[in-house]
Amino acid sequence: MLTIIENYAPMLLEGALLTLKITFIAVILAALLALPMAILRTRSERYLRWPIQVFISFFRGTPLIAQLFLVYYGSGQFRPFFMEMGLWGFFRDPVNCALLAFTLNSLAYQTEILRGALQAVNDGAIEAGRAMGMPAIVLYKHIIMPLAYRIAFPALGNESILMLKGSAVASVITVMDLMGQTRRVFSQTFDISTYAVAACLYLLITTGFVLCWRQLEHYLNRHLRYEQRK
Predict the structure, then answer these.
(1) How far apart are alpha carbons 203 and 137 in whole angstroms?
(2) What is residue 34's predicted lDDT score, i.e. its pLDDT?
């Protein structure tokens, strides 16, 4: 294991940085889109709910690797169309395809998490805001969304961790992330400890993320700790 670390540490660290980059961008993009989709998901109009429900069911009910193959290999079936639209430069890059597939997958999960959090917001707080004459935008901004995100925060952290670990499948379409670099090193050395080093790197990244997420959660819920001390 020490030999692997000494000789191939730069390659593995480069792969780890790419893993973090893909995961971070995918989760952030999904988070930006999840809120409006979750709000539409809670509406009573069926023509608004059904398309989103079908989207969520597909991406939650199919394997991530199948979604990745559909984006990466499936886009090649429509190459003339994408070339005409000027999008082929995006789809021919495996990193972009992995980023798109991971964003859509995380979007489905985050939307459902936020949908549950929105429905769990205390009705009394919403009625109090309406009684004060708050318009819908102000009500969402100052009452519904802060409460919903506090409820959803732990689940969103778990989703981010799952996406971080799930991003390892990107290596099957030649993305040189942490797992891709690990497979490359193993093909050169045939040393099984290469995967042990990769597992340790994943563990370190996940542990660091969990610690940071807990600090954010404590910050968001600092008013609860203050009330408990009173």
Answers:
(1) 41
(2) 96
